[in-house]
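Pilot study result, target chain (314 residues):
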Amino acid sequence: MRLYLDQKDWISLARVRLQRADPAERRAAAALMKGFGTGRLIVPFSESHVLETGARARPAKRLDVAMTIMLLSKRRALAPVHAMWVQEADAFLARRFGASGDGEPEPFGKGLAFALGIPEDKLTLPWAADASEAEIAMVEMYAIAEPGRAGLSGYDRERQARWDALVDTLSSTSGDLVKDREKYNEQDRIAAMTLIMMGNEMIGRAIGYDVQDAYLDLLREEGPWAIIREIPSLAVMTELLRVRYPDIQVPWTSHDYHDVRFLSTALAYCDAVCPDRRWGELARRSEHITNSGVIIATGRDAVPQAIEMLFGSL
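Predicted structure:
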């Protein structure tokens, strides 16, 4: 059972470890320990946790949270959407059109490079080939705690520039997408925008596998949602955008898109997710998300609620 924690939950767990927690934080930690006691609970960390931890101002606070993440996740990680959707797209093209790509998407893996979506052959790993798990975890802990980490900051800057550009697009189109929305199939409209946000990469992959004619026929006959709904992380992203758009009085921010992109893989693949209250309420408005069976728990007692729903009364 995989439980995705919000950044605030990792901060609370760090406070428990340092014996500075309030009663609600201690309840969350106790519930988590009961879950671990079943031998069936995994709490993966993600790129979001890495970036948010690295953004904390005080080095000691960064290290406290990074250590807690390493101790409880045991380096188990959730893939980011920019790495995940490509695998999902290849699986979709193989399943639907007989494309030659092989293998199933791998949303869960191990280590910092996996969480960031960076192939290990792109990095010079700073540990020996025979390093122990504890040694590797310590190196990764310090990498998370240090925002100027060598070899990773370039990737961070490149992705941040892309996300900032997408936020500008979301903000500029939000009014048009909400206007006359009752006259249109919203899932198709937002799914089309998701495909646009991906640039030409979807059709490029179809061309690469020589199935572009069948792909374009499906797009014309059934619409963009017929494609996006079969690509799990992009389907969740599309739905989160769809339920967020009507709230036009609240401007889009880079933090909004940060939440959308990291919840996209969490809600698509984890058994339970503890988002903040606002995004939890938005996610529950999507039948596509709720019908997948993912548990969405919010509020101060989100973690105990999620553990009880996953394992019953322990």
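One observation from the pilot: The chain has one domain: 3-311. A full batch analysis is planned for the follow-on phase.
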